[in-house]
Design brief:
single chain, mainly alpha
Length: 248
């Protein structure tokens, strides 16, 4: 029970402390932009290549199902496109980002904790929440939605190519926005933004708790990635359930 409360409560406490410190001390925007470049620049190819493979796999599965039930994979295109925009694009892109950026944040912060650099920052009148956590949170909130857009585009294009070249159907059916509306875009934005907020917070919780030596850094990195990934899935479920209950 305590582990569950810690899993949900620690990032919320971290967010509250970060907001309070940022209001009091200001946000280091230059460091925030550096973190955005770090998160986006180093994750963009992982996200785009991973989503391209993901789109190809989805079309292959859709073709298999179409052969069994409807006979023509192209008729699944509009539903596939809505599913990709609303559900799979933002969440899978966020999970890929969590696997790289979450690990990077947790490893960097845990190394600073183990080497007592965080204590040194506090002794020099710095605040780790404003100086270390806030820039990573801003980078996540801005960067993950941008990466989700690029990942969704990559998955869509790979689906078009695979459908046309491997299955001989008009791949443009997998770009049909017939079923996509504003609620789909809002759900996608909430999922991407929520994951972008949660990933750096989960990584920071794990990183700043690290004590000891190299073993503690490894454990904190693993814990940060696991927490960030599970958090993204929970955010996906919560947003999807809320929209279902509201019939949106």
């Amino acid at each position: 029970m305590s582990a569950v409360l810690s899993f949900f409560g620690a990032p919320a406490v971290m967010l509250a402390r970060t907001v309070r410190a940022s209001v009091r001390d200001g946000v280091p925007w230059r460091e925030s932009m550096a973190q955005l470049n770090e998160l986006g620049g180093r994750s963009v190819w992982l996200v785009m290549s991973g989503m391209a493979f993901f789109g190809a796999v989805l079309v292959t599965i859709a073709n298999s199902q179409a052969k069994r039930f409807v006979g023509n994979v192209a008729v699944l295109g509009p539903a596939y496109f809505e599913l990709l925009i609303r559900e799979l694009g933002p969440v899978m892109s966020a999970l890929l980002t969590a696997s790289r950026a979450g690990a990077g944040h947790a490893a960097e912060l845990s190394t600073m904790s183990v080497n007592e650099q965080v204590e040194a920052l506090e002794m020099s009148a710095g605040d780790p929440y404003a100086d270390l956590v806030a820039p990573r949170v801003i980078a996540g909130v801005l960067g993950v939605p941008l990466l989700s857009i690029l990942g969704t585009v990559a998955a869509t294009l790979s689906a078009v190519v695979v459908a046309g070249t491997a299955f001989g159907v008009d791949g443009r059916a997998f770009m049909d926005p017939r079923y996509v509306d504003g609620w789909d875009l809002l759900a996608a934005a909430l999922k991407a933004g929520g994951c972008g907020l949660y990933i750096p917070l989960a990584a920071a919780v794990a990183g700043l708790r690290a004590r000891g030596g190299a073993e503690a850094v490894g454990e904190a990195t693993t814990a940060g990635v696991v927490a960030a990934s599970l958090g993204c899935l929970l955010i996906d479920f919560a947003v999807s359930l809320a929209f279902q209950l509201l019939r949106l």
